[in-house]
Amino acid sequence: MNIILTAAPATTAVALADVKAQLNIDTADDDVRLTSLILAATEMVETHIGRALITRSYSGFLNWWPTSPEGHVRPWINLEKPPLIGVSAITSYDDFDVGTVYPATNYYVDTLSTPGRVMLRRGQVWPIPLRMANGIQIDWTCGYGATPAYIPPTLKLAIQIQVGVLNEARGDETSAAALHPAVTLMLSQYLFSPPS
User: Fold this and answer.
1) Which strand (E) or helix (H) includes residue 145?
2) pLDDT band at 172 (very low <50, low <70, confident <90, very high)
3) Residues ≥6 apart with Cβ < 8 Å to 27
4) In terms of Cα–Cα distance, which of 77, 49, 194, 48 is closest to 138?
5) Which residues contact 6 (CB under 8 A, 6 or more apart)?
6) Which residues in 10-55 belong to E strands, given as ranges?
7) Are 163 and 34 in contact (CB under 8 A)?
């Protein structure tokens, strides 16, 4: 699935004040640089665990519905960047790029699984896309919440530690290129294997 970010997070995953307290910094001289480091560390953490921390929205595009190893169209599709909050629309396109929204009553949005998924209701079938490329569009929202208050404390602490590593490694790109081993260990409980 090709995914496009359609609504970015409205805030950072960790507050600047929390990072400054962690690093014992009490001046505003480095606020701009520290904010950039927060964004970089957050991206590193999110990439490592495959999750979205602060609420955001995506559109995902498919040429065709996923199939099983036997070639049968699956009655579900996994959505990237858990935790899944909700699906706003599933749209199929014809050869003239006209979209038809698939009725939400035909599918169930599973926000309890990791990753979240959309599942057909009994007796329903997926709409057939007529456009050869990107004929299916799924729009969803994901993340732990709209503010850092919703993010698990371990994930916020991991970001803060990684910000400290990046802050100390100024000018040393080699040591800043990877997550700190302590951060990797902290993140291990948030790794997941997508169901097949």
Assistant:
1) none
2) low
3) none
4) 77
5) 57, 58, 59, 139
6) none
7) yes
Tokens of 46: 């999110």
Distance CA(73)–CA(75), nearest Å, equals 7
Q: Are 37 and 167 in contact (CB under 8 A)?
A: yes
Structure tokens at 121: 């209701």
Contact 131/166 with Cβ under 8 angstroms? no
From the CA atom positions of the chain, what is the Rg in Å?
A: 20
Tell me the sheet residues that pair with 136.
Answer: 62, 92
The reported pTM is 0.91
C-beta neighbour count of 38 within 10 angstroms? 22
The rounded distance, in Å, linking the Cα atoms of 78 and 125 is 16
- Do 114 and 144 meet the contact criterion of CB atoms below 8 Å apart? no
The domain locations on the chain are 14-50+147-190, 56-142
Percent of the chain with pLDDT over 90: 87
Which pLDDT score is estimated for 195? 60
E strand or H helix at 17: helix 16-22
One-letter amino acid for residue 141 of the chain: T
